[in-house]
C-alpha cells in the first residue's frame, strides 16, 4: 500500500502501519516485560561427581620411601615438574606399572590400580596420587575482561564463580543474552532476569568442555529521534528498557518544539517496506502517561519518535524512517563483515 503526503509527491511503498494506543488495558493484557527466568532442569540439577581424570591432567604419584619413583627430576623441583602428563588418548605411564588408560578414573581408582601393579616389585607399596595440573577447561568468550580458559579442578566450579573470575564488562555486555553451551547444545540464560527483584540465581555447576558466551550489546539498541533534547541510539545491557527510560536518557521531550501527544514507538522498521509495522502511541501530555511509559518495554531495533506530526501525516513520517532503516541495516551488515574479517 502506498501513502501519499500532503506537501510532496513522494510515495512510500509498504503496508499501512497498525497504530495501537498505549493504555492501562494494553499493558495489563501484554506479556510481562521481564518473563520469569526458567532454567532447563538438566542444567540446574547437574551435580559434579568425584573428580574424574581427563587427558591433559598432570598427576603426581608419591611412593613413600622410594624417592627415585616420586621425584625423578629431583626434590628441589616444583611438583608439576615431577608430575606425569595424561596423554591425549587417555594413557598414563608410570615406571613398573606400565601404561594405563586413566580417562574417567577417580583419584582413588588410579591409586588402587598403581598400588596393585607396584606390589609385584615393592613390598606393600604406600602411595598417594594428586592432580597438580588440570587439562579440563571451561572456555570463556565475549564481553568479559578476562577470557582465559578456566580449569575444572577437584573443587567444583560454579557458573557464578566463573563469571566472577572472568569479570563482566559492564559497559559492553548484554546480560540477557548469555549462552551456556554444553554437549553441543546451547542454553540461553538471562542473567539480568535471574537476579531481579532481590532474587538470587540458583547454583549452576560447570562441567569439562562447557563454553560460556556473553554477547556484546552493540547491536542491542533503540533509536530515539525527533523532538527530544538529545536524539541518539541507546544501547542497553538488561533484559528490557522502558519507554520512559529511553526518553529520560535522551534528555526528555523538547519543551519548545515537541508535542506531548505525538510520542510513538515504531516496531518492525527492519522490514518497513514489505511487512506491516506496528506503531504504539503514547499521549504524554498527562504526567500519568509517564507511568504508562515506565511499564512499556522497548525491544532492540525499536524507534522512538517524538514530534508535532499527527498520525495522518504518515508519508512524511515514513520517508524519514526509510533512510534510517537502511542505515540500521547497513550498519549491521558492516559490523557483521568486520566480525568475519577479524575471525
Automatic annotation (TrEMBL):
It is a multi-pass membrane protein. This is Polysaccharide biosynthesis/export family protein. InterPro entries: Poly_export, Poly_export_N, SLBB_dom. GO terms for biological process: monoatomic ion transport. Keywords: Cell outer membrane, Ion transport, Lipoprotein, Membrane, Palmitate, Polysaccharide transport, Porin, Signal, Sugar transport, Transmembrane, Transmembrane beta strand, Transport. Residues 137-212, 220-306 form the SLBB domain. One of its GO terms (molecular function) is porin activity. Residues 48-131 form the Polysaccharide export protein N-terminal domain.
Amino acid at each position: 500500500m502506498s501513502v501519499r503526503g500532503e506537501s510532496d509527491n513522494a510515495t512510500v511503498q509498504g503496508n499501512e502501519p497498525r497504530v495501537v494506543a498505549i493504555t492501562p488495558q494494553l499493558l495489563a493484557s501484554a506479556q510481562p516485560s521481564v518473563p520469569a527466568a526458567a532454567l532447563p532442569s538438566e542444567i540446574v540439577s547437574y551435580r559434579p561427581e568425584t573428580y574424574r581424570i581427563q587427558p591433559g591432567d598432570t598427576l603426581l604419584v608419591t611412593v613413600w620411601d622410594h624417592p627415585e619413583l616420586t621425584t625423578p627430576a629431583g626434590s628441589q623441583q616444583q611438583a608439576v615438574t615431577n608430575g606425569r602428563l595424561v596423554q591425549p588418548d587417555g594413557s598414563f605411564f608410570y615406571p613398573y606399572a606400565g601404561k594405563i588408560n586413566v580417562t574417567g578414573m577417580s583419584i582413588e581408582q588410579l591409586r588402587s590400580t598403581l598400588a596393585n601393579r607396584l606390589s609385584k616389585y615393592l613390598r606393600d607399596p604406600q602411595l598417594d596420587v594428586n592432580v597438580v595440573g588440570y587439562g579440563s577447561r571451561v572456555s570463556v568468550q565475549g564481553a568479559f575482561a578476562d577470557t582465559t580458559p578456566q580449569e575444572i579442578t577437584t573443587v567444583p566450579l560454579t557458573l557464578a564463580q566463573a563469571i566472577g573470575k572472568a569479570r563482566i564488562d559492564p559497559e559492553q555486555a548484554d546480560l540477557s543474552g548469555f549462552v551456556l553451551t554444553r554437549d553441543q547444545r546451547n542454553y540461553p540464560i538471562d542473567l539480568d532476569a535471574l537476579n531481579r527483584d532481590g532474587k538470587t540465581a540458583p547454583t549452576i555447576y560447570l562441567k569439562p568442555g562447557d563454553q560460556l558466551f556473553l554477547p556484546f550489546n552493540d547491536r542491542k539498541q533503540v533509536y530515539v529521534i525527533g523532538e527530544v533534547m538529545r536524539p541518539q541510539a541507546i544501547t542497553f545491557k538488561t533484559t528490557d528498557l522502558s519507554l520512559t527510560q529511553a526518553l529520560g536518557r535522551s534528555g526528555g521531550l523538547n519543551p519548545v518544539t515537541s508535542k506531548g501527544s505525538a510520542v510513538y514507538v515504531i516496531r518492525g522498521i527492519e522490514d518497513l517496506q514489505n511487512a506491516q509495522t506496528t506503531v504504539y502511541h503514547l499521549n504524554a501530555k498527562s504526567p500519568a502517561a509517564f507511568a504508562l511509559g515506565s511499564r512499556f518495554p522497548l525491544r532492540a531495533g525499536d524507534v522512538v519518535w517524538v514530534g508535532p506530526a499527527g498520525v495522518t501525516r504518515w508519508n512524511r513520517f515514513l520517508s524519514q524512517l526509510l533512510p534510517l532503516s537502511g542505515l540500521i541495516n547497513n550498519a549491521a551488515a558492516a559490523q557483521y563483515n568486520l566480525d568475519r574479517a577479524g575471525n
